[in-house]
Amino acid sequence: MVGAPPPNSYVQTNEVGRHLSRTSLAMWFTLRRLPGVGTRTQRELLEHFGSIENIFSAGRGQLDKLLAGKSEAINALLDGPDAESFQSEFDWLDQPGHHLLVWTDPDYPPLLREIADPPVVLSLIGNRRALSSPQLAIVGSRNPSPMGRENAQAFAKSLAGAGLTVTSGLALGVDGAAHRGALAAGGMTIAVAGTGLDRVYPARHRELAHEIVKHGVLVSEFALGTPPLPENFPIRNRIISGLSLGTLVVEAALQSGSLITARLAAEQGREVFAIPGSIHAPQARGCHALIRQGAKLVETAQDIIEELGPLASVARRVAPDNALPAPALDVSMTALLQQIGHDPVTVDALIERSGLTADAVSSMLLQMELNGLVSSCPGGKVQRIS
After folding, report:
1. 324 part of a folded domain
2. Is 329 helix (H, G, I), strand (E, B) or coil?
């Protein structure tokens, strides 16, 4: 790793030659970590004083007008940035593809600027220009049904193939499936993390994160070393929706964090889409609630393209997926598949519906699962896959 440069040399230069000095970077790092100061107040400081440098040259009386009662924050600004304390951040920025994107940078994503509380500092790994591409957020359950996982990946693949960047949160379940679907289409995908970018959470998505960096970007407003605290994830959801033209909820229970993202999207003036499901499925109830509240019901990726196409300048028609032909089934297996339907069902219920023996039903289900026609669900149930 290249060592940190001497003071006042340029350490952060992007493709078009804009740069931040070591001193300026330390100011931004200090602003991001001001005790008791949130993103709205950080932005108010920047707007009031006009630049990061002016904030640190202001007197106590000036600072007290905006930071009344926040003596720790005021003292930190009066003391000035301690560049030596941010050596780990400088070392991190020395690595290829690592960037710091600040509020005053012309590359700051325009849609994100429009939300009520945009972050003033973003850490990035990957293609920073991906942040300004037309995006659709895809979110949903961390424990989706097989159909929900399949829908997330299929929608992401079709939408990425049509030119939309897929944005999600790198979480297990729907998020991971959405990222993988976009990658499978050769499209771009963005993952907004709820930790510092010196770690990958969840750890099992480490390989997926590396693939996202090659074909998109990892983003976080959190400083290096920030652990996966539960309160971080609802906070980061405003960035997922704020970067995007719209948010698609694939599956969500009534208390799902995905509904927070959908609510934020609506408050930000963005489109909200939801995929309906079975009336018996707990994972579908959040989507049904969103539809009752005005979210657009979608059945195909084309439904989203028709809504967002004019805004995103993407292809108006989704290319058909080159799926393999369905395997040929005998009469008994076809009849059993029809008995399964699209809701999860127990093997005992299938035996009763079909009139077949337990051995025959088990044998057919095994063949259908090997052919990708059904999938096992929790509780010993099976579900048909479209």
Report:
1. no
2. coil
